[in-house]
Amino acid sequence: LAEAGVDCMLYAHVVDAVVEDGKMRALLVSCLEGPVLLWAESFIDATGDALVLAAAGAGVRKYAREDSMHNSMFFFVGGVTPFQHEYNCAIYEQAY
């Protein structure tokens, strides 16, 4: 990302967005240094919960049921240990 000129801001919390004429112009975030207003031509929402989209006023949907676990992201990691889908499902169901 650094080679491509992308600025990554980690451990920053979305506070609000500046939207003009239907386009997001800036993002207000809170970080250790204090509040920061980030101006850019484009933004990538990598929050996992569509927090940037929601701050910009985009329509987002909540898929979780009230009686279910919070929203989670499941993914596969290669080269660590063999993945056993049935075993992991059973452990998840037991924990739930």
Overall number of strands: 3
- Provide the low-confidence segments as ranges: none
| SSE series | EEEHH
| N/C terminus separation | 37 Å
Q: Into which percentage range does the β-strand content fall? A: 15-25%
The spatial strand order of the largest sheet comes to 1-2-3
Query: What is the structural class?
Result: alpha+beta
Assembly status: single chain
Report the C-alpha radius of gyration, rounded.
18 Å
Helices, by number, come to 2
Question: Roughly how much helix do the residues carry, as a percent range?
Answer: 10-25%
Average of the residue pLDDT scores: 83
How would you describe this structure to a colleague?
The structure is a single chain. By secondary structure, the protein is α+β, with helices and mostly antiparallel strands. It is built from two helices and three strands, in the order βββαα. The chain has helices at 51-55, 85-95, and strands at residues 13-20, 23-31, 34-39. It has a three-stranded antiparallel sheet with strand order 1-2-3. Strand 1 (13-20) and strand 2 form a beta hairpin. The longest helix is centred in the last third of the chain and has 11 residues, at 85-95. It is elongated and about 50 Å long. The termini are far apart. 6% of the residues are buried. The model has no long low-confidence stretch (mean pLDDT 83).
